[in-house]
Amino acid sequence: MSEIDLCVGGRNYLVACGPGEEARLMQLAGMVDAKLRAMSGNLSAQDSQNLLFAALLLADELDEARSGSGTSRISDDTLAPQLELLSEALENCASKLESKLARA
Asked: Structural domain of residue 6, as residue ranges?
């Protein structure tokens, strides 16, 4: 398991990911960050964390659809490993955020 630092919406997130997934997550985070900049939203820390992972899922689906690398519908076999990876990353990030908030 690797960890990468993603900057989205002016906030840094330490995210765990599988080996070789670093570049993909950075690309998706860049897409989400661009969307947030376009929205000019001002979100709380918890809201932005939830938004980050929801947006990563959506950005991944959109990117795959645009590239034509999959069928018009993403199969469960393709999506399940990605969801597992993002679920682990979300749990890791939430745990670290809770730890930081407890120390504050």
From this structure: 2-103
